[in-house]
Amino acid sequence: MKQQVAILGLGTMGAGMAKNLLKAGFIVSVYNRTRAKSEQLAADGARIAATPEDAAGTADVIISMLSDEVASRATWIGENGALNSAKPGSVLVESSTVTPAWIGELAELALKKNIEFLDAPVTGSRVQAEGGQLTFLVGGDAAVIERVCPVFAAMSKETVHLGPVGSGARMKLVNNFLCGVQVASLAEGLAWIERSGLDRDQALRILKSGAPGSPLLGAISTRMVDATYDVNFLLSLMRKDLQYAGLDAETLGVELQTAMSAEARFAEAVEAGYADKDMSAVIEPLRTQSPRSPNA
Fold first, then answer.
1. Is 52 found in the same domain as 139?
2. What is the predicted pLDDT for the residue at 294?
3. Mean pLDDT score across all residues of the chain
4. d(CA 109, CA 252)
5. What is the band of 1 on the pLDDT scale with cuts at 50, 70, 90?
6. How far apart are CA 181 and CA 199, in angstroms?
7. β 4-8/27-31 pair status
8. How many domains does the chain have?
9. Residue 13 pLDDT more than 70?
10. SS3 194
11. Has residue 152 got a pLDDT over 50?
12. Mean pLDDT of 122-130
């Protein structure tokens, strides 16, 4: 018999994950703060839960995919939190991008209730979530991962065991730190090209085929050129991830100076009204800045 699964959070990623679990035949309960997103999944067979506590009560595996640490805390341990009703022997899976410090705290709370815990953030964005092509970066006990593997398999192309609890969260922050810095530097470089008189298309062909080229540069540069900012990865969340990366690296004595610089670019874009757009919109404030006098 397939496991019962609860999905907490139906944003850009969570909705696609829930749909793939339903397609694979799992019994799925869903909770989202905005009920309308839950109702979209009811037609596919999901049970709509009124609270995280309601969603978790009968689940064998409880997965959260939330925007930030504040939302994660509220959903797991706040009023009507999922940890209140999670049954002993069930598995809590935190797939949100949060700090290893919070992961450690949540794991301890689960342990006190004889509940298993994995931190399992993902790589990939909206397209991969919808297509069941995510990669899970997992921290925790190998035997627990084995129990949850059928659930992960319905949503992903790969599950990578990185080590003890907290390893997945840290690897995800390293990943997003490098992505955020590249996106911010691309925004600066492209704005520079656009103002310089260089042929933009020619310049981008050179960059894409040369040493700076990467799948991320290719995808993001296209969105920046077309100014199409439908969300694949939310701009405000990249800003948050860069902040979390800096905090975690600092605990290990590493100062992420480039993260601070990139975060400042994303902060500018948030202030300019692009918080709810794709992260590629980070270029827009650079496009509207007035040129400085060379003698200023």
1. yes
2. 52
3. 96
4. 24
5. confident
6. 24
7. parallel
8. 2
9. yes
10. helix
11. yes
12. 95
Q: Taking residues 275-282, what's their average pLDDT? A: 98
pLDDT at 2: 86
- The sign of the torsion formed by the CA atoms of 161, 163, 164, 168 equals negative
**For residue 195, what are its two tokens?**
């103002």
Contacts of residue 115, Cβ cutoff 8 Å, sequence gap at least 6: 83, 86, 87, 88, 89, 90, 91, 92
Alpha carbons 77 and 113: distance in angstroms, whole number = 13
Task: Give Cα 240 to chain centroid, integer Å.
Answer: 10
Joined together, the tokens standing for residue 264 give 């400042």
Residues 144 and 181 in one domain: no
Q: Which two tokens stand for residue 67?
A: 């925007």
% pLDDT > 90, the chain: 94
Whether residues 257 and 152 fall in one domain = no
How long a stretch of residues is the chain?
296
Q: Which residues are catalytic?
A: 172
Identify the domain containing residue 71 by its residue range.
4-164
User: How high is the pLDDT of residue 36?
Assistant: 86
User: 136 with 24, same domain?
Assistant: yes
C-beta of residue 56 within 8 angstroms of C-beta of residue 34: no
Q: Which domain CATH number covers 15?
A: 3.40.50.720
Q: Is residue 296, in this structure, part of any structural domain at all?
A: no
Distance CA 176, CA 244 (A): 10
3-state secondary structure of 124: coil
pLDDT of residue 296: 47
Please choose, from the candidates 247, 272, 291, 266, the residue with its C-alpha nearest in 3D space to the C-alpha of residue 184: 266
State whether 37 and 147 are in the same domain.
Answer: yes
Query: Which residue, among 189, 231, 224, 191, has the nearest Cα to 12 in the 3D structure?
Result: 231
| In the block, residue with structure tokens 């100014």 | 227
pLDDT tens, residue by residue, 216-247: 999 999 999 999 999 999 999 999 999 999 99
